[in-house]
Design a protein that fits this description.
The chain is mainly alpha-helical and 149 residues long. Helix content is 57%, strand content 6%. It has helices spanning 29-39, 41-50, 60-76, 96-123, 125-137, 143-148; strands at residues 2-4, 14-16, 140-142. It has a three-stranded antiparallel beta sheet with strand order 2-1-3. α1 (29-39) runs antiparallel to α3, α1 (29-39) crosses α4 and α2 packs across α4 (96-123). The longest helix is centred in the C-terminal third of the chain and has 28 residues, at 96-123. The chain is elongated. The two termini are 15 Å apart. The mean pLDDT is 82.
Length: 149
């Protein structure tokens, strides 16, 4: 992956995944939770470093993707603590009660992953600041660059 603080299109900054030679065909529950935590990392960082009054709209795509992954975990893959059975109906075909229960589980997953992202930021605040300082001086950093910081 690459990280940049330089504007790209309508994004002010971002982390870009560089596809692996062989993309994962199947993800475990833990891997999906990690992906959601990563997606919520920008939101958590804005909250942590800039304060809740300065959270921007920059992370809208990340929040949407995190929500979609959490929804898939609950509704498609049966990866929630509450089991809803094997349902292949579209969300609009579900009863209002079933939709509410699924939404509750999705929100629970998102909140747990956001809490994890905040916990990681707090534990690694010095390293995050070092990466930010390096990004001021470089257009982008690679995963190897970040590992060396």
């Amino acid at each position: 992956y690459k990280v940049t603080a330089q504007p790209r299109g309508n994004m002010l900054s971002g982390t870009y995944n560089i596809p692996k030679e062989k993309e994962e065909q199947s993800l475990t529950k833990e891997e999906m939770l990690e992906k959601i935590t990563i997606l919520l990392g920008g939101h958590a960082a804005e909250h942590h470093f800039l304060g809740s009054e300065n959270i921007s709209t920059e992370r809208a795509k990340d929040l949407k993707k995190a929500s979609e992954l959490a929804y898939s975990m609950v509704h498609v893959y049966g990866m929630s603590e509450k089991q809803f059975g094997l349902i292949s109906a579209g969300k609009q075909e579900l009863s209002e009660g079933a939709r509410a229960k699924i939404d509750e589980e999705v929100q629970k997953i998102l909140q747990q992953c956001l809490a994890r992202a905040k916990e990681l930021l707090k534990a690694h605040e010095a390293e995050v600041k070092d990466v930010a300082t390096n990004l001021i001086n470089h257009e982008y950093l690679t995963g190897d660059d970040i590992e060396n910081i």
